[in-house]
Amino acid sequence: MDVVLTEEMVLNNLINTCNRDFGFKIFDATPIKRGWLNLKWKITTDTGVYLIKQYNKERYKKYNHDELLIAFSQQMQLHNSYWYVLDWEGK
Question: pTM here?
Answer without folding.
Answer: 0.59
